[in-house]
UniProtKB/TrEMBL annotation:
The lineage of its organism: Eukaryota, Fungi, Dikarya, Ascomycota, Pezizomycotina. Its main location: nucleus. One of its GO terms (biological process) is protein folding. It holds the Pfam family Pro_isomerase. Residues 309-456 form the PPIase cyclophilin-type domain. This is Peptidyl-prolyl cis-trans isomerase-like 2. GO terms for cellular component: catalytic step 2 spliceosome. It catalyses: S-ubiquitinyl-[E2 ubiquitin-conjugating enzyme]-L-cysteine + [acceptor protein]-L-lysine = [E2 ubiquitin-conjugating enzyme]-L-cysteine + N(6)-ubiquitinyl-[acceptor protein]-L-lysine; [protein]-peptidylproline (omega=180) = [protein]-peptidylproline (omega=0). May catalyze the cis-trans isomerization of proline imidic peptide bonds in oligopeptides thereby assisting the folding of proteins. May also function as a chaperone, playing a role in intracellular transport of proteins. May also have a protein ubiquitin ligase activity acting as an E3 ubiquitin protein ligase or as a ubiquitin-ubiquitin ligase promoting elongation of ubiquitin chains on proteins. Residues 467-513 are annotated as: Disordered.
Amino acid sequence: MGKGTDKLYITHSEWASTDGSQFGGSLGFQGSKQNLPFRKLPYNYCALSLQPYSHPVTTRDGTIFDLMNIVPWLKKHGTNPVTGEKMAYSELIKLSMHKNEDGEYCDPVTFKPFTDSTHIVAIGTSGNVYAWDTIHRLNIKAKNWNDLLTDEEFSRKDLITIQDPKNLDGRDMSKFKYLQDGTSTLTDEQEAERADPLSGINLKAAGSSAKILAAKAAVEKARAARTDPNQNPALVKKTATPQNTTASYAAKKALPANAAIYTTGKAAASLTSTSVSVHTAADRAILSEEDYLLKPKKVNIKGYARIVTNLGNLNVELQTEWAPRAVYNFIKLAQRGYYKNTAFHRNIKNFMIQGGDPSGTGRGGQSCWGSNFKDELEGPLLHNARGIMSMANKGKNTNSSQFFITYKPTPHLDRKHTIFAKVVGGLDVLDLMEKVPCAEGTDRPAAEILIQDVVVFVDPFEEFKKKEKEEEEKKKADEEIKKKGGTDDDKTTWTGKRLRPDGKVDGGGPSGGVGKYLKAAVSEKKDGEDEILEEAPLEEYYEEPAKKKVKKGGFGNFDNW
């Protein structure tokens, strides 16, 4: 009788062998790597991050990396992550890949889009990427060894195969060295950020849980410091303080008064450009003094000026709150003497009088900035009275130096011209101006109406700066007084008693609260001459209460039984 060799169980030799038998974890780590399935990496993916690249660079063997990923890897490891061999920055070649209107990578000559089955090559001297059909037909067959875009010379050795659909060994992710070894692709900063339990959490929006998270982080750091034998015990308290970027960002420093509502843009620039140093803070932009003052409703101090004419004086009130740019322009031009000896070139009865043009033609004049400035039409000001002073323009946002003064309400000009002042004195002079006749067939006054000068009585912007400076100095003085413990009034109560730093009344008398009079009475008896010799018995103070008479009769309580 023969012996059967097929057993109903797996023997030890079968379980431990690696020659074809596969039973659970019998192959081990080295054996499991021998039969990894084929995984193709797309041509437009970085071989390190396994994500689409935006700044492609390649090696001589055609492996493409993203510059933002390969540079930190080379700093940390100094090897090619795919092959494991040593690699330097100089071995990387920057690729210039072209896209069509749909955002797809394509051949720059034939404009055929690249697909996973396209044979793609790059020229090492220029970095331009073409389809193999284009290079083969227009360069190799034609014996034209010049780049089709840049006309640089190259040789067959300079051709780098990016993707060959007939040979996919270079695109097989199962053979990548760093994937086989399980090497992390994160930088030291990224690993530290992932280890931080507060990373990615907005502590400002976390409410009371932010304190709990910060406390847990502090406990973990203190525990790690205590378990470290090389840790200086004197630094344990300092180490326990949670030093992370999220917590420090939550404790914002006070913004300056001229901070803009938008940021400097450094964080966005450092994210999208490799030439800009890394910047992660969203710093607010700082406005210039002029931009800060010319924000609407920032300066609500009214200005006052006098327009001196050959017919008399016009006193005007400047509406700084709603038209800061127009008021600023008028004041600066007046202070420069720009309006001196300029004529009102247009005068229409029952409508308005216009001036402010040094040329006297109505086609000249410029603002204090040298260019036109935009309209300011958001306020409640309207052309609803006589003596309204507005900016003249040639269309939208074309304000310069010319202005006009109305003779009556003109509602059809509302939201078309910037109102920046009104006449508050000299309306009789305005009547004289309206009565001046015009030359026949024109709007020009027959008799010259001349602006001799514009005198600024109250400059609202200077007043605002002076007021801000005084408030800032007062704030600094208050802080200095607070550091010294406050003024004498802050250190004493209204009764004249001095206050201690903790806010309690300083004095030898008994403190307030429950039982304060009892303590005072005890202290008086201690200081007095009378002494208690002995305690009086309680009977002297309390008489025994009289017994109630028991009502007799009936059965009673059977005491006599």
